[in-house]
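Fig. S4 source data, part A: sequence.
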Amino acid sequence: MKILYIATAAEFGGVSRHILWLAEYLISQGHQVGFVTAPEPRLLKQAQQLGVELFPNPYFVRPVQLHNDVRALWPVFQAIRKFNPDLVSAHSTKAGYAARLACAILRKPVIFTAHGWAFTEGRSMWKRRLLALAERLAAKVTAKIICVSEHDRQLALKFKVAPPEKLTVIHNGIDPRPFEGVGGFSVRKEFSLTDYPVLTMVGRLAPPKDFFTLLKAFKRVEDKAKLLIVGGGELYSEIQRFVREKGLNGRVILTGEREDIPEILTASDIFVLATNWEGLPRSIIEAMMVGLPVVATEVGGVPELVENEVTGFLIPPRDPDALAEVLQRLIADSELRRRMGQAGREKALKEFTLRRMIKETERVYIKVKKQE
């Protein structure tokens, strides 16, 4: 089978890794894989090493730019014609529209994976309805829509994006092996972390993440605890300034982008995800894999990962008081941290492995191919 992936992937993030994991498995099974993606250096390098046929699209940029968005269509058409896939797998909103328009014209079956809908909570209702209408039109030429959470499937049904039989849920998965037998000593030494609890949040320093609510909450908890903010993005300077203005220098460490996430998580005691909207965050699954209790905002598919008061705590959006309260509770109780972390690891290994995600995705590909 020949599968062509189409994704904006202007930054090397969750969607990039998702596609690379799928590509690695599919190639190992004898399938041919192609990528149409923004020319992100790390993604292109790793894809090339796997044996993926690459079709860089320089017009796939993150912000909405009408002139670039229109120009992005032609490289998509060219790639589909040249690669001649048996099916196309589109990821992310912008690439999803381009891929489905091209596939409708070229008569190719297309699967769309929604890594969190553009019309999810956090936007004004008129924008949500407009974006849902666009998805509804695109869904008419889509063979199957994969939602990464049951929350997103229900959202699609609520906004009448597609009939139930066209929607399926495949939760994100993580390979547990990189998180086994990893030590956090080098990270603790690098950042001069003491025996006091270390809180960590990993994510792009950009919306939808809510670092400012986290920082307001952290200012109110045990002052010997440390907070690592791991990632890069357009909010870096603003967050850095906020840390300085709130007198949190020394307590909050902005690490920038890191490749040693397993080591950072192993060096941590509590994982936090303050956010305004989400699909199904891989960062939470990674934290669960190393046995960390998770404190996260109750949005999107997060409750499908975090079982409140069992594997961690769910808190309302933009509520620093509620966040501070549960953070302080975990900081003060090492046995509670251990118990919740162990429960989270067991849940992750049972429900959110990479192998399970890949096999379920492959079954969807085969089913769609047979229907053509």
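Fig. S4 source data, part B ends here. The chain is about 45% helix and 15% strand.
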